[in-house]
Amino acid sequence: MHAMQYEITLPADYDMGIIRERVATRGHLLDDFPGLGLKAYLMREREDGSPVNQYAPFYLWAAPEGMNAFLWGPGFQGIVDDFGRPVVRHWTGLAYGEGPAAAHAPRTATRRATPLGEGTAPGEAVAEAVGRHAEEARAEGVVASALAIDPRHWELLSFTLWAGTEAPAGAGDRFQVLHLSAPGPPALRSGRLW
Q1: How far apart are CA 131 and CA 135, in angstroms?
Q2: How many CB atoms lie within 10 A of CB 140?
Q3: Residue 42 near residue 55 (C-beta atoms within 8 A)
Q4: Are the CB atoms for 67 and 59 separated by under 8 Å?
Q5: Of 62, 104, 116, 146, which is the most exposed, with the fewest CB atoms less than 10 Å away?
């Protein structure tokens, strides 16, 4: 599994209805994209308490071939044409799990980044994080959750989809889920990914 996200930060007075319309008319195009586990079309707004207006899709890829086909194909080119070429962050997957609300459509997503300290043994830190992730994925209201790592910056990333509009305090940056393309969640193997 590979996690991927790009963030398009928009002006404070940007009409976020444009993003909603974009997702409403184009979101379905990835509903059956080969190699995609899921894509959460995420947005956050200043008027909703966010520090920025932002469109920030988040992807879980079952295999790198799907990610590459998207990035070098017409789907991502549409983003480049409309907004310029964003920085695309990606992480190596560590764990994935569906939660007790897996049958519900997600309405909220959270993303939490945690740096691994300089003196931290990577293997021990990852093992502890995977254990915590297994517990967090079973929390009430969780649709699905993923844990990944960026070994360049030694940063753990926890991404969770929630059935409700609220998330627990400390869950991380909060986003609205406008649409979920999920052609292959069964291809996302549950539990530890090695």
Answers
A1: 7
A2: 11
A3: yes
A4: yes
A5: 104
> Which residues contact residue 88 at a Cβ distance below 8 angstroms, ignoring those fewer than 6 apart?
4, 5, 6, 71
Q: State how many domains the chain has.
A: 1
Which token pair is 122?
Answer: 């990577």
Grade residue 177 by pLDDT with cuts at 50, 70 and 90: very high
- The CATH number of whichever domain residue 170 belongs to comes to 3.30.70.100
| Three-class HEC string of 123-144 | HHHHHHHHHHHHHHCCCCCEEE
Could you identify the residue written with the tokens 């207006």? 53
- Burial class of residue 52 in the structure, from the number of CB atoms within 10 Å of its CB (0-12 exposed, 13-18 middle, 19+ buried): middle
pLDDT at 186 over 90: no
Which residue range forms the structural domain that includes residue 162?
A: 2-192
Token pair for residue 87? 């920085």
Quote the pTM value.
Answer: 0.94
Q: Is the dihedral of CA 38, 44, 49, 50 positive or negative?
A: positive
Residue 178 and residue 27 in contact, taking contact as beta carbons nearer than 8 Å: yes
d(CA 110, CA 104): 16
Q: Name the one residue in this structure whose structure tokens are 């444009």.
A: 18
Residues 6+ apart with CB under 8 A from 23: 41, 43, 178, 179
